[in-house]
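User: Can you predict the 3D structure of DUF4440 domain-containing protein? Sequence below.
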Amino acid sequence: MSVTADLYVEVKNFYARQMRVLDDLDIEQFTATFTEDGSVAHPHRGEKVEGREAMRAKMTSMLPMYEGLVTRHWFDHFLIEPAGGAGDDGLRVTYYSLVTQSNAEEEVRFFSSSSVEDRLVRDEKGELRIRERVIHRDNPRHGRVI
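Assistant: Sure. Here are the predicted structure tokens for DUF4440 domain-containing protein:
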């Protein structure tokens, strides 16, 4: 499978929609962008959450840390490639993520800077879903990931 201009735009729109629901703290819609058995790994925290239900529980437990803040996820420098392998029609998408937070005094701070690697697949309806996400927090001790 080649990465056409149409596919590139489709992938970028997928991420734009996904980040809007995340920034709106819409956990249900955000987790729906993953496959039912999808996973999110934070190697820098030694944590991997598997399945939508576990993702919802983890995200719900983290909601208090976002009270009184506006959080924005900024993704850029996308590299979209076929996942490879015979009969594999998925995509490997790598990109950089910068997360900012604004408070009631309109002060903005950088929350995190990361590189992210996603494995995208199509569901039975042909919609893009994330099967696996690995987030690497930028830290010189962890070396270069992408």
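Residues 20 and 36 are 20 Å apart (CA to CA). The chain has a mean pLDDT of 91.
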